[in-house]
Write the structure tokens for this entry.
Amino acid sequence: MLVAGLVLAMVAGLIHLYIFVLESFRWTAPATRATFGTSAEQAKETRQLAYNQGFYNLFLAVAALVGAVLVLAGTVTVGTTLAVTGTGSMVLAGLVLVSSDRTKLRAALVQVLAPALALIALLVAHLT
């Protein structure tokens, strides 16, 4: 279960790295606007907010990825703490997203599924 949790934490981290790139560097690109359902004008007006938000996703990704790598390298306590902090924050951010706008359920599921499964697997691994 530990390996499954770490793999899922890494998948979650990679998803959030991708979101970082979209929000911080490709926000006004047509494909990104289609993904997030924004017009060219909305994207231009919200570019600075998206840039900032993208970095929050980067920081969550780094926590999950570095945590998983540290556990694999034998630094279990620090690594697990980072992985749980990163994936737990991802889950909470996804819940905030869907609670603020129910039309964002699909986006929230993309954001929440892998980290939630990682948390469950890490919990089971540490309880057994």
In short: Helices lie at 2-25, 30-36, 40-72, 76-100, 105-127.
